[in-house]
Amino acid sequence: MVIGFARTEDLRNYFESNFARDLKEVGVKGISSASVLPEPSKQLTRETVLAWVRDQGVEAVLTTRLINTDRQTREDSLGGDLYSERGPRSWHVPTEEVTFTTFHLETRLYEASSGRLVFRAASATGNPVSPGSVALAVIDAMIGELSERRILAARLP
């Protein structure tokens, strides 16, 4: 089961459903927690998740959450040199402030029966186009890492 902790329910659904879909593509049955667990207005507790997981025979729970957001602002200039028939000339464009944003996330994979931590990874995505692009980058990186470490095993019915 995939659990994404996100600022909005739409982003949570987007992340979880895409992660579950991509797991299926590598032969692993994945389920979005948003499709089976209570509405966000109800408190989602460890006990709620474990009760459902045990009842459904889920083997593992994967969680991803935002740890930190860094924003750095710096001056950026498009100045340079121009070469023409009359010789080199310098040209300058006024500088502008550019903000570079990095999202730091943590992904954990737990064995459902024991609650044992099986895998933990930190990731960072810089200057994303959208929150959805962060989700897709994390999904791709985590599935790649879990496959490379041979943690994912094909288990489709």
Describe this structure as you would to a colleague:
The chain is an alpha+beta fold and 157 residues long. It has one domain: Rossmann fold. The protein is 29% helix and 36% strand. It has 3 helices and 6 strands, in the order E-H-H-E-E-E-E-E-H. A 4-stranded mixed beta sheet has the order 1-2-5-6, with helices on one face. Strands 3-4 form a two-stranded antiparallel sheet. A hairpin with a 5-residue loop joins strand 5 and strand 6. Helix 1 packs parallel to helix 3. It is elongated and about 80 Å long. 20% of the residues are buried.
List keywords for this structure.
6 strands; single chain; Rossmann fold; two-stranded antiparallel sheet
Number of strands: 6
The CATH architecture can be given as 3-Layer(aba) Sandwich
Strand content: 35-45%
Strand count, sense and barrel status of the largest sheet are: 4 strands, mixed
Shape: elongated
Radius of gyration: 22 Å
Order of the strands making up the biggest sheet = 1-2-5-6
Helix content: 25-40%
> How many separate domains?
1
Instruction: Enter the CATH topology name.
Output: Rossmann fold
Overall mean pLDDT score?
A: 83
In N-to-C order, the SSE pattern is EHHEEEEEH
What distance separates the N and C termini?
16 Å
Number of helices: 3
CATH class: Alpha Beta
Low-confidence stretches: none
- How would you classify the helix and strand content by structural class? alpha+beta
